[in-house]
């Protein structure tokens, strides 16, 4: 299920910082959904960089403090 290449890098797509900033800061979105393990693209997640995941959690918690819930199965 991890869909890793021979070097162990995950091949999952992910959001870009520009798109997430637009959605949360300009378009007024409060949540985004995805089916993958992480919000971050596979290359970043494989390197331990979860910056976009942290951004989504921070924006969600700040913008929706009473209703924000971050759940990962």
| Rounded mean pLDDT score | 72
Major sheet, described briefly? Answer: none
Q: Give the ordered list of helices and strands.
A: HHH
Envelope shape = elongated
Radius of gyration: 13 Å
How many domains, in number, for the residues?
A: 1
Percentage of β-strand residues: under 5%
- What share of the residues lie within helices? 25-40%
Q: What is the count of β-strands?
A: 0
Structural class: mainly alpha
- Separation of termini? 14 Å
Count of helices?
3
Topology summary:
Blueprint: H1 17-26, H2 42-46, H3 51-63
What does this structure look like?
- The model has no long low-confidence stretch (mean pLDDT 72).
- The protein has 73 residues and is mostly helical.
- The protein is built from three helices and no strands.
- It starts with 16 loop residues before the first helix and ends in a 10-residue tail after the last helix.
- 38% of the residues lie in helices and 0% in strands.
- It has one domain.
Describe the structure in brief.
The protein is 38% helix and 0% strand.
Task: Tag the structure with descriptive keywords.
mainly alpha
């Amino acid at each position: 299920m991890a869909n890793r290449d021979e070097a162990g890098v995950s091949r999952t797509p992910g959001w870009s910082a520009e798109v997430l900033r637009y959605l949360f800061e300009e378009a007024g979105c409060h949540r985004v959904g995805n089916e993958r393990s992480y919000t971050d693209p596979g290359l970043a997640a494989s390197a331990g960089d979860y910056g976009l995941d942290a951004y989504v959690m921070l924006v969600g918690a700040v913008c929706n403090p009473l209703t924000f819930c971050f759940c990962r199965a």
